[in-house]
Amino acid sequence: MDEAVLREIVCHTCSHRTRHRLPTLEPLMWLQALMSENNIYINYACPACSTLTRSRIESGAKISEDADLAKFPGGLSVYIMFLECAKSDCESPVILLAPVTSEVREVDLMAHIREHWSTHGAVCAKGYPPTYPYAVRIWKQLESER
């Protein structure tokens, strides 16, 4: 049986939860997480409400011994994205986890982002929001349905 260490992200706007493998979340935790005594927050593009927020990673990893990894992450393609900061002289990108429905093809990703996303709390390391319309410096797919 396959084992997967999973963590849940809870959208700050709508409370929708998505589960992700710990190795998927680690780059965001290293690069631009906000850590408090009890919580870790990352920039997150919620696939349910399309809002870019600073959302909480649930504490405590869950180990799923019966994870059907062939169907994980459940109809989503997961990207790490580097958006340009709205402050013109700031060199820090807004780094976020962006799960989108698998129906959105990678060639249509920018159109999907511009049509559906809105910002409510996602910021760069210096505290500034991303530019609008969104300008993506880099994106990389981390997970998808196989």
Report on this model:
Helices cover 13% and strands 38% of the residues. The protein contains two helices and ten strands; from the N terminus they run ββαββββββαββ. It has one domain (4-143). Strands 1, 2, 3, 4, 5, 6, 7, 8, 9 and 10 form a ten-stranded mixed beta sheet that branches. By secondary structure, the chain is mainly beta. The chain has helices at residues 22-32, 109-116, and strands at residues 4-10, 17-21, 34-35, 40-45, 51-57, 62-64, 76-83, 94-101, 118-119, 136-143. The radius of gyration is 15 Å and the shape is globular. The model has no long low-confidence stretch (mean pLDDT 86).
Helix-strand category: mainly beta
What sequence of helices (H) and strands (E) makes up the elements?
EEHEEEEEEHEE
Spatial separation of the terminal alpha carbons: 17 Å
Overall geometry comes to globular
How many strand segments?
Answer: 10
Overall structural domain count:
1
Relative helix content: 10-25%
Annotation field: number of helices: 2
- Low-pLDDT runs: none
For the biggest sheet, the summary is: 10 strands, mixed
Q: How much is the average pLDDT?
A: 86
- As a percent range, the share of strand residues is 35-45%
Global Rg: 15 Å
